[in-house]
Design brief:
Layout: E1 8-14, E2 20-26, E3 34-43, H1 46-54, E4 56-57, E5 60-61, E6 66-67, E7 71-79, E8 91-94, E9 97-98, H2 104-107, E10 118-119, E11 136-140, E12 144-146, H3 153-156, H4 159-172, H5 177-184, E13 194-198, H6 202-214, E14 219-224, H7 227-234, E15 242-247, H8 257-270, E16 277-282, H9 287-296, E17 297-305, H10 318-322, E18 327-330, H11 338-346, H12 354-358, E19 359-364, H13 368-377, E20 388-392
Helix pairs in contact: 4-6, 4-11, 8-9
Length: 402
Amino acid sequence: MSGPNPQHFRALVLHGAKDLRLEVRQASAPQPGELQIAVRVTGLCGSDLHYYQHGRNGDFIMRAPLCLGHESAGTITAVGIDVRDFQVGDRVALEVGFPCTSCAPCIEGRYNICRSLRFRSSAKTFPHLDGTLMELTNHPADKCHKLPAHISDVQSALIEPLAVCMHAIRRSNPADAESVARALSATRVPEETAALIFGAGAIGMLLTAALAATQHFSTLVVADIDEARLRIAASLPFPLAKIRTYLLPKPASEASPQAEEDLAQQMLSAFCLPNGFSRTYDCTGVASCIRMGIYATGPGGAVVQIGMGGASHPNIPLSAAALREVDLIGVFRYAARGYPDAVALMGSEKFQGVAEKVATHFVRFEEGDRAFELAAKGVDEQGKPVVKVIVVSGREAEGHER
């Protein structure tokens, strides 16, 4: 093993709903094949917020104290034996899913659907596997991704959610969207290919930016009920991309299926898309958005389900999808190519300025409760919209607080 080995570190540990404690833990040397990492930045995810508020995330219920966080990056402080290609001082992003590596999905590179997968900060398995909201952690070297020097700490905190977006893009196969649109055009003149993104949160904005940067669609429409967030989405630094926004009405207590279909048609009319969107990406998990997405997607298109925060049993208009061969594509986290794709895109010139739009708030490690409360409220004390909260450790907090 090489490098210094601190004896103690602090961790933010959730003991129950809104019972977050700052604890001191004993450090241990990295095992063979592991790296010891000083965590510099950790973004708060929607699943973290569910655990903090309710002590559970859907069906996954905490049965013991759990350290949250999984959107992390940091600096290597020690290298375990049998580890090559890493050295003390390297900056890395942490990929936090641990599959069996031997089942059929793992062999195919789809380890995210491995039945034995364990994920840091998740209560799905017991004993729980602690997350990365800690100052120091040991992590498998093969799940660490070296970061080039020009990727900032702010950018590094967004590698994990961007990996989700890159996996969603791969799953949705946008390359064939143009051919579908051309076939639908009565005049045989290639029409615009458009994608609809429900949700202007961190995933929605990063997905919009990734689609704009990779130029898969000529028009991107971001829909949300929050006008302030839509303004941020519209300001993403892609002057050549057509990024449009659509303000959805606040959801009624019981929206009728006809009202949702009518709203989908209104969106299509507003953007002159008589043949519908080629792809719809739902980043909300809200049942009404899923249904509107089916109605708004054109024949031969696809609805890509990324968000998981809404109803677990939405009433889906399957006939509206089946009769027009609209595919329903599920997305769960990311697979083998997610992180490499995300690091490459985040470090590219075309993606500059995106992270600063998405990472809206930075909070010191010692103020864990404030970080979660900011994420829960959605606006800060000055009324500024909260998109992504980044928890910053140690000296890295200097100059990042906002």
